[in-house]
Write a structure and sequence with these properties.
Shape: flat
Helix content: 25-40%
Largest sheet: 5 strands, antiparallel
Structural class: alpha+beta
Low-confidence stretches: 1-5
Mean pLDDT: 79
Order of helices and strands: EEHEEHHEEEEEEHEHEHHHHEHEHEH
Number of helices: 12
């Protein structure tokens, strides 16, 4: 493990951009919105299904590694979380705060032994003896200071600041509008349960206290939600003049536009949220929203889990997704038909596309004899190494 300097040795990291080296979380108010939560949940639950792989590239060969790192990434990142829960939280943090942090815990030999997502109130960048450190301050008052090289840092809207992604402040006006709209609908429902009107007394002049007493009695008995029948009764001493006050609520088209604004902000569609998407809609969602996250996670986990020497030997982390599981049966069938004859797919890989389990001996690849190496086509046709051309007055053999 990297030896940390004493607290008094830390100084605030100076940034050339002039920004403060302090990051404050966006808060939980946005996640309280059902529209925001639905959008982020759709991204997180699909992104959590990405397949992490520890591979080693040697020349043109890509060799999967059955390592402890592979176990951490694929099965149990830490003793408190399974892999799906881990990635769900990491991706949710990324889209809610545009910054997501994962602490890479290592043993004394420098081998990763745990991955822990960090949710803090603030983060401060420090420096000491040429190294950058991160100080996380949590809501309970605790602090954690660790080297920045031990933190997987994912970012969105990475523009102005040298280290942090920008906040979600542009979303606040839309969230305020959603909150106001929801309150208006709730108030409209409540107001429809009441009788509204004016009591006009037909008797001679009454004392103010008598008028108030009669009004309060009428209100307490009839103008409340417990009056299930919605009907009041008065005698001849007063007339009731009903007021038709129709509450105004936002129409359906406006509500749809407000929701679409949130969906566009997070890069998700209503079809994805409701799991009612077509093959084309899923591919568009994957390529525009999930694939950039997968690429960034692969690069960051590679940089923070391996030493420069290990990376030099071809060690990498990649995140894959079998998008074909969302393809139609026709697409899957055509793909298998076209690729198996070229020895691109093995039997088990073709079965995986069809959501079938592997079979014994299914890792073999078959190739059609209808294909020939392009450089040997002439030899194949003439049988003499291509020295004689095919005659124009006969069909080639």
């Amino acid at each position: 493990r990297t030896k940390q300097p004493q607290v008094q040795d830390y100084t605030n990291l100076k940034l050339l951009s002039g920004y403060q080296p302090i990051f404050t979380m966006f808060g939980d108010n946005a996640y309280a919105s059902d529209v925001v939560r639905g959008a982020v949940d759709a991204i997180a639950r699909n992104g959590a299904k990405l397949n992490p792989k520890h591979i080693r590239k040697t020349g043109r060969d890509i060799i999967p590694q059955n390592s402890n790192i592979q176990y951490l990434l694929e099965t149990r990142p830490n003793k408190y979380m399974d892999a799906y829960t881990f990635y769900y939280k990491v991706i949710t943090e990324l889209f809610m705060s545009n910054n997501s942090f994962v602490f890479v815990d290592k043993d004394d030999a420098g081998n990763p032994i745990g991955l822990y997502p960090i949710s803090s109130a603030t983060l401060e960048l420090l420096e000491s003896k040429g190294e950058i450190y991160t100080r996380f301050k949590f809501y309970g008052g605790e602090q954690l200071t660790i080297p920045y090289v031990s933190v997987v840092h994912l970012r969105r809207f990475f523009y102005g600041h040298d280290f942090y992604g920008a906040s979600n402040k542009p979303l606040i006006p839309t969230l305020d509008l959603i909150n106001t709209t929801d309150q208006g609908i709730a108030n409209a429902v409540k107001s429809s349960a009441y009788i509204r009107g004016i009591l006009k007394f037909t008797q001679a002049m009454l004392k103010p206290e008598d008028i108030k007493r009669e009004r309060d009695r009428f209100v307490s008995e009839y103008m409340n939600i417990d009056n299930n029948g919605g009907i009041g009764a008065i005698d001849a001493k007063a007339d009731f003049i009903q007021l038709n006050n129709k509450p105004q609520i936002v129409d359906r088209d406006t509500m749809a536009h407000i929701k679409q604004t949130v969906y566009n902000y997070f890069g998700v569609s209503e079809a994805i949220i409701t799991s009612n998407y077509t093959e084309e809609e899923w591919n568009a969602f994957y390529e525009s929203t999930l694939e950039p996250v997968a690429l960034q996670m692969g690069l960051e986990f590679t940089a923070k889990l391996f030493t420069e020497r290990e990376i030099g030997f071809g060690n990498q982390i990649i995140f894959e997704s079998s998008r074909l599981q969302y393809a139609s049966a026709t697409t899957k069938s055509n793909l298998i038909t076209n690729l198996m004859g070229l020895a691109v797919l093995s039997v088990n890989e073709a079965r995986e596309i069809l959501n079938l389990g592997p079979v014994e001996g299914g890792d073999v690849r078959y190739q059609s004899l209808n294909f020939v190496d392009a450089t040997k086509a002439a030899e194949y046709q003439t049988g003499n190494g291509g020295e004689e051309s095919v005659s124009e007055d006969r069909e080639p053999t």
